[in-house]
UniProtKB/TrEMBL annotation, chain A:
GO CC annotation terms, alphabetical: RNA polymerase III complex
GO biological process assignments: transcription by RNA polymerase III
Keyword check for Hydrolase: no
Gene designation: LOC117798708
Keyword Membrane tagged: no
Subcellular location: Nucleus
Keywords recorded for this protein, A-Z: Nucleus
Official protein name in the record: DNA-directed RNA polymerase III subunit RPC7-like
Family from the record: Belongs to the eukaryotic RPC7 RNA polymerase subunit family.
From TrEMBL, chain B:
Family: Belongs to the eukaryotic RPC3/POLR3C RNA polymerase subunit family.
The keyword Phosphoprotein is annotated on this UniProt entry: no
Protein name: DNA-directed RNA polymerase III subunit RPC3
Native source organism of the sequence: Ailuropoda melanoleuca
Lineage start: Eukaryota, Metazoa, Chordata, Craniata, Vertebrata
GO MF annotation terms: single-stranded DNA binding
Subcellular location(s) of the protein: Nucleus
Chief place of localization: nucleus
Region: Disordered, residue numbers: 198-230
Alphabetized Pfam families for the sequence: HTH_9, RNA_pol_Rpc82, RPC3_helical, WHD_POLR3C
Length: 166, 503
């Protein structure tokens, strides 16, 4: 642009600057070489915020709504970070809901079927299928397997009663 | 969609639905309609996560789907609908003013869940209301139902598009996605339900500390085994109806200070009290029909409202107010002058406003660079020679309104970011305070002594308490500011929409 031409008025403009009030020979202000400050000083004090019962109530509604949404199943938390090392406490922690399962029940009659997630082991209909797998695991390491059985059962209980809750 | 709007959508989605839904939602807003796999590929998200996110977005009426040729389903986000999340508190509050606590909770539940059946809403609201009532008292389903019906009758809630009933004797292949329909005449039709029951209180023994597996919550005890009478019939809040109400409110209150003038100028013979006149005018203003008639004629005189003009006045008043607060009252005077005279030359501004040339120039340039006013070229000669051209200052209300609207979006985005920053800075302290509160609550439930409670409370030091107080005050201020800026957004959007309709 016209960066270097700050002194006086060397260049021609496409319109007559007198028309907008720049007098003859008057210097234009220097070009701006940096972005405006992040928090520019305020020339005039801002008007105070509205106050009163209505605003107070709406404020409470807003904050409660925000809080409520965070605890509803529609709030999808990012998947738990992959374990870096096996920790002692892992044995004693309740496993979260199945990584892939959706935690609420949409009405599938009104949604494209392609959006359904196939979940292994924890769906009601599939309860019979994993049974042989479970038997196989018991033989491997008895103690570890029994623990896994317990957590699997708990998982199924959760999902089942979740489904019943509608 | 401007960058500012997309940014704001991103913040809203992230705050209410988490980062995954935000990523998918923003992607769709940016790229337009896309099929499932393309979304997963372009965002680098797993297919399952995308499916989850889309289910949530569709449930909340933020994304719709369409079946294209060859059976491909494409998903489309509604950016402006996402921005409406800013207005949720206002919708809920309005429902409260019109239909009291019951109405408030009905609308709140619908907004929290996106879509619900009437029976589900009634049960949930009855439960919530019962919680707040004295021991032994419960809220009847019938009462909640009645309020729901009133909300439907006045169109504040409406039916969601539904699967049409088909006499399907043709067992063809299932469609790639159900095609949903909606009809004007059935949109507010309430199903014939006889919901009998009362709200249930959550028993105190179940209000234990967090960590209870979900299975134990007795939310629906035995009812859930019964078939749902209105299965598949979903309802949502009708935001447009609320907007109509806000518009009417804005116009009525703007006119309110003219009430005295109107009242005084009524012919002496009119035996009508101020209150009654007030009511009539309010009713008329609230009615979606526009009465057209000559004022003062037979028929008792008709109140004429030109909606577009009214919205234009409100938008202009908003612009004037902003100029005044940003640039000062002398600037505002110049602004009003240019508005009034439509087109003014530099010299004329100086003369009419009685402000010295140098200052007038400075003020005009400030407003010019802020896009509140613009320069218009009027050539005197066919060759458009600059020396023989008028350069006039003018206010283009539509483009100034658009500019200000854009600024409002940016402002709210800044407010939200600052609020999140403040909260994050004090995260540790907030968590500590929540833990302490939880401990105190459980101790109180088990009947702890005053001294013990005191000890726990002292776990938070005085300076920490001060910090929490400051945080709360700041967060409240930022939240309140958001609400206030959204009021301006509503006015400007209404005016812009009304103007675009006429073109």
């Amino acid at each position: 642009g016209r960066g270097g031409r700050g002194r006086g008025r060397g260049g021609h403009m496409t319109f007559s600057v007198e028309a907008v009030g720049i007098g003859r020979g008057e210097a234009l202000p220097p070009p701006t070489l940096q972005p405006s400050p992040l928090f520019p000083p305020l020339e005039y004090k801002p008007v105070p915020l509205q106050a009163g019962e209505e605003i107070e109530y709406m404020l409470a509604l807003k904050q409660e709504f925000r809080g409520a949404m965070k605890s509803l199943p529609y709030f999808i938390k990012p998947s738990a970070p992959k374990k870096d090392i096996e920790r002692y406490s892992d044995k004693y922690q309740m496993p979260g809901p199945a990584e892939n399962a959706i935690e609420w029940s949409p009405d599938w009659r009104q949604l494209p079927p392609e959006l359904k997630i196939r979940v292994q082991k924890t769906r009601k209909e599939r309860r019979t299928v994993p049974a042989p797998k479970r038997q196989a695991k018991v033989s491997a390491d008895k103690e570890e397997a029994i623990k896994k059985l317990e957590t699997l059962e708990k998982k199924e209980e959760e999902v089942t009663s979740e489904e019943e809750e509608e | 969609m401007t960058q500012a709007e997309i940014k704001l959508c991103s913040l809203l989605l992230q705050e209410h639905f988490g980062e995954i839904v935000e990523k998918i939602g923003v992607h769709l807003i940016r790229t337009g309609s896309q099929p499932l796999r393309a979304i997963a590929h372009d965002t680098g998200t797993s297919l399952d996560q995308v499916k989850k996110a889309l289910c949530v977005l569709i449930q909340h009426n933020l994304v719709i789907y369409q079946v294209h040729k060859r059976g491909v389903v494409e998903y489309e986000a509604q950016c402006s609908r996402v921005l409406r999340m800013l207005r949720y508190p206002r919708y809920i509050y309005t429902a409260k003013t019109l239909y009291s606590d019951t109405g408030e909770l009905i609308v709140e539940e619908l907004l929290l869940n996106g879509k619900m059946t009437m029976s589900a809403v009634v049960k949930k609201v009855a439960d919530r209301l019962t919680e707040t009532m004295e021991d032994g008292k419960t809220m009847d389903y019938a009462e909640v139902s009645n309020t729901f019906v009133r909300l439907a009758d006045t169109h504040f809630v409406q039916r969601c598009p539904w699967v049409p009933a088909t006499e399907n004797s043709d067992p063809g292949p299932p469609p790639p996605a159900p095609i949903l329909v909606i009809s004007e005449k059935d949109m507010y039709l309430v199903p014939k339900l006889s919901l009998i029951g009362k709200g249930k209180r959550r028993r105190s023994s179940d209000e234990d500390a967090a960590g209870e597996p979900k299975a134990k919550r007795p939310k629906h005890s035995t009812d859930n085994k019964e078939p749902i009478p209105d299965d598949g019939i979903y309802w949502q809040a009708n935001l447009d109806r609320f907007h109509q109400h806000f518009r009417d409110q804005a116009i009525v209150s703007a006119v309110a200070n003219r009430m005295d003038q109107i009242f005084r100028s009524l012919p002496v013979g009119y035996n009508i009290s101020k209150q009654v006149l007030d009511q009539y005018l309010t009713l008329l203003a609230d009615d979606p029909l526009e009465f057209v008639g000559k004022s003062g004629d037979s028929g008792g005189g008709m109140y004429v409202i030109n909606l577009h003009k009214a919205l234009g006045s409100l938008a202009t008043a908003t612009l004037e107010s902003v100029v005044q607060e940003r640039f000062g009252s002398r600037c505002a005077r110049i602004f009003r002058l240019v508005l009034q005279k439509k087109h003014l030359e530099q010299k004329q501004v100086e003369d009419f406003a009685m402000i010295p040339a140098k200052e007038a120039k400075d003020m005009l340039y400030k407003m010019l660079s802020g896009n509140f006013i613009s320069l218009q070229e009027i050539p005197k000669t066919p060759d458009h020679a600059p020396s023989r051209t008028f350069y006039l200052y003018t206010v283009n209300i539509l483009s100034a309104a658009r500019m200000l609207l854009h600024r409002c979006y940016k402002s709210i985005a800044n407010l939200i970011e600052r609020r999140q920053f403040e909260t994050k800075e004090n995260k540790r302290l907030l968590e500590k305070s929540q833990r302490v509160e939880a401990i105190i609550a459980s101790m109180q439930a088990t009947g702890a002594e005053e001294a013990q409670l005191q000890e726990i409370e002292e776990m938070i030091t005085a300076p920490e308490r001060q910090q929490l107080e400051t945080l709360k005050r700041n967060v409240n201020k930022l939240d309140a500011s958001e609400i206030q800026v959204d009021e301006t957004i509503f006015l400007l959007e209404s005016y812009i929409e009304s103007t675009m309709k006429r073109q």
